[in-house]
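Protocol step 4 of 5: obtain the predicted structure for the target chain.
Materials: sequence only (see below). No template structures provided, no constraints applied. The aim of this step is simply to have a reference model before the mutagenesis design in step 5. Sequence pasted as it appears in the construct record:
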Amino acid sequence: MRKWKWATALCVFCTAAFFACGDGDAPKFDDRSVTSEDVKEDVSEAMKTVKEYSSEEKKDFLRQMEKKMKEYDRRIETLRSRLSEKADTLETDARRKIEDIMETLRDKQQAVAKNLSAMKTAGEASWKDLKSGMESAMQELSTAVDRAGSHLE
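Step 4 output (structure tokens):
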């Protein structure tokens, strides 16, 4: 009889522990099922968030490129001024070489301006395709500015 009391007490304890420790942390679901409209709404919200992020990313990138472009414009103007000052003292070959470099520089500057303009009008989906071209054009401009500067020193 004593064994039955222990067995009964053990069963009662285990049953109480089972219900007490159950799924207290499990998420609660309401009785309604998820509809296709619910899924469409969630996807629509996610797409809107992605689009807003992409738009902000584009704006930040364009601000950075415009800032760099202004800096290069300033440096190019300084180089032009230095070329004008030194033009009379340079030999013909040296002057032609520097003028060719400055012309290449102007071409690179125009290419960057054209890419920047295209990026501003590009849609949210296509601007990233233009981003690498813009970065490449900006690097070429940077190299050309440095090259021109080294020839005018």
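Step 4 remarks: The helical segments are 2-21, 36-86, 92-121, 127-151. The chain has four helices and no strands.
Proceed to step 5.
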